[in-house]
């Protein structure tokens, strides 16, 4: 059978949030973009809790604000936690963060099969050539750069696409990322496994926090509790990979066992029943939770979302990092195709910003784990920064910081431990002073938002959200030393005006 060949500007592999984001923002600049998705949407996916920067920043750039509102997703005002030394649940509220206050101080809890479908259909409406049930079989490359891909369509017909750029947004299970010639490195700090399912009839937190994600620590790990609708709840336990063998047996019993050992979630599910049919009727697992690639790009190819990196989901960073990377990749590709910025310069900015965002969340989440003190628990004792091997710390710190970040990377284990311990102590102290969920939110939250590690996490999310709300009136200084800044429409890079 002969291969059908064509030429385009960009081919994007993967129709999730990262792939839909980058393809839409490229098409909005007039480029010919083909998006290849191996499945037929809508399809199931985990990662259901969003952050405001995705909804009000990326969402507005994509033009899906009204569609998201019409979908009637559960409104999320923040996160609620039974974590750390504070004996009562406490809130992390978006509304009292200076960067996230006002009418955009919320996000959504989403059924990903619906959310992802909205983004993919929007990409098609904006001019992207979306081809579902298309399986990539080969990346075309030579010593200089990646030149395109080969794939088979739903009828088994082989195709070849030559493109100026290939974007790999194909997720954590695909092996396409190997074509950037980098190595995927897993974090020893977050070496976890998750088991999760769905329940009908679970209780809700008191209003106005009823839409919040609840994360509760227990001896063997922690549990998420995400209200997807008035009745449907996503529930998952994040535990040590040493439990993997147990999960090969009765998964129903395993999940129930973890829930029963977490009092607050056990109580919320006391009158609930697990969904056993349809899309949500399966108990699922996911391994190797946190990793990063040693390189996010090579000439002609760039990694986006889970193809590049992933980190523990306790603060709902998955979709944020994917759509953020999609935005960065679109800015870089748009700049190169327009002839405004060299490929090396554009992707140095991409990789520097992407690694910085991953690093600040990695440090924040390391501090968050570290403050959950339980010396009698293997899970929590193993996740103290001071208990990690120095060589493991140094190796992963180098990758997290990267050589493109424009910042001094902590490659000395002692310095890294000291930095993470400082962040953990500051975060633990702030949480200790937040009080309960009944305390006035402003009084409760200013301690958290005053800690350096939280402020750093907020920086780029704030920039994205302001860009989405204010458009061309938004002002951004370079994030990296001698770095680039977004164009007025936010879709490409430009040099800072002197």
UniProtKB/TrEMBL annotation:
Family matches, as Pfam families: Trp_halogenase
Task: Give the highest taxon in the source lineage.
Answer: Bacteria
**One Gene Ontology MF term:** monooxygenase activity
Q: Which UniProt keywords apply?
A: Monooxygenase, Oxidoreductase
Mind telling me which SUPFAM superfamilies this protein's record contains? FAD/NAD(P)-binding domain (SSF51905)
**Keyword flag Oxidoreductase:** yes
Cited InterPro entries = FAD/NAD-bd_sf, Flavin-dep_Halogenase_NPB, Flavin_halogenase
The keyword Oxidoreductase belongs to this UniProt entry's keyword annotation: yes
Family assignment from sequence similarity: Belongs to the flavin-dependent halogenase family. Bacterial tryptophan halogenase subfamily.
User: What's the name of the protein?
Assistant: Halogenation protein CepH
According to its UniProt entry, this protein's organism is Paractinoplanes atraurantiacus
Q: What is the lineage of its organism?
A: Bacteria, Bacillati, Actinomycetota, Actinomycetes, Micromonosporales
């Amino acid at each position: 059978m002969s291969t059908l060949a064509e030429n385009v500007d960009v081919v994007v592999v993967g129709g999730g949030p990262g792939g839909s984001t980058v393809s839409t923002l490229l098409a909005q600049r007039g480029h010919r973009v083909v998006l290849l998705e191996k499945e037929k949407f809508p399809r199931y996916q985990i990662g259901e809790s969003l952050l405001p920067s995705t909804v009000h920043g990326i969402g507005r750039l994509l033009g899906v604000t009204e569609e998201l509102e019409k979908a009637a997703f559960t409104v999320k005002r923040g996160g609620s936690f039974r974590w750390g030394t504070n004996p009562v649940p406490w809130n992390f509220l978006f509304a009292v963060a200076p960067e996230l206050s006002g009418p955009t101080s919320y996000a959504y809890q989403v059924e990903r099969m619906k959310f992802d479908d909205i983004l993919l259909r929007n990409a098609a409406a904006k001019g992207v050539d979306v081809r579902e049930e298309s399986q990539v079989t080969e990346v075309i490359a030579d010593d200089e750069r990646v030149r395109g891909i080969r794939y088979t369509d739903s009828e088994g017909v082989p195709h070849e696409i030559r493109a100026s750029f290939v974007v790999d947004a194909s997720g954590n299970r695909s092996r396409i990322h190997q074509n950037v010639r980098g190595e995927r490195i897993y974090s020893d700090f977050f070496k976890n496994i998750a088991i999760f399912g769905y329940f009908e009839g679970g209780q809700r937190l008191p209003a106005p926090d009823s839409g919040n994600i609840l994360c509760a620590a227990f001896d063997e790990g922690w549990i998420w509790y995400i209200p997807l609708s008035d009745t449907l709840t996503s529930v998952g336990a994040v535990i040590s990979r040493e439990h993997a063998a147990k999960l090969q047996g009765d998964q129903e019993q395993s999940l129930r066992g973890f829930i029963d050992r977490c009092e607050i979630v056990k109580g919320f599910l006391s009158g609930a029943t697990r969904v056993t049919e349809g899309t949500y009727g399966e108990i699922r697992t996911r391994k190797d939770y946190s990793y990063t690639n040693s390189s996010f790009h090579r000439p002609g190819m760039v990694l986006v979302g889970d193809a590049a990196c992933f980190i523990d989901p306790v603060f709902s960073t998955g979709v944020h990092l994917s759509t953020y990377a999609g935005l960065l990749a679109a800015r870089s590709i748009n700049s190169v195709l327009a002839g405004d910025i060299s490929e090396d310069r554009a992707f140095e900015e991409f990789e520097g910003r992407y690694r910085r965002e991953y690093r600040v969340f990695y440090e924040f989440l390391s501090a968050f784990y570290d403050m959950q003190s339980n010396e009698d628990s293997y899970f929590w004792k193993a996740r103290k920064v001071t208990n990690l091997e120095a060589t493991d710390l140094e190796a992963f710190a180098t990758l997290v910081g990267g050589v493109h970040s424009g910042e001094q990377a902590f490659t000395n284990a002692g310095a890294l431990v000291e930095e993470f311990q400082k962040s953990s102590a500051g975060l633990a102290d702030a949480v200790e002073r937040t009080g309960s969920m009944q305390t006035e939110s402003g009084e409760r939250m200013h301690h958290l938002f005053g800690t350096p590690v939280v402020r750093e996490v907020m920086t780029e999310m704030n920039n994205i959200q302001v860009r989405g709300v204010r458009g061309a009136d938004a002002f951004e200084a370079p994030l990296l030393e001698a770095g680039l800044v977004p164009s007025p429409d936010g879709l490409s890079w430009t040099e800072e005006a002197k």
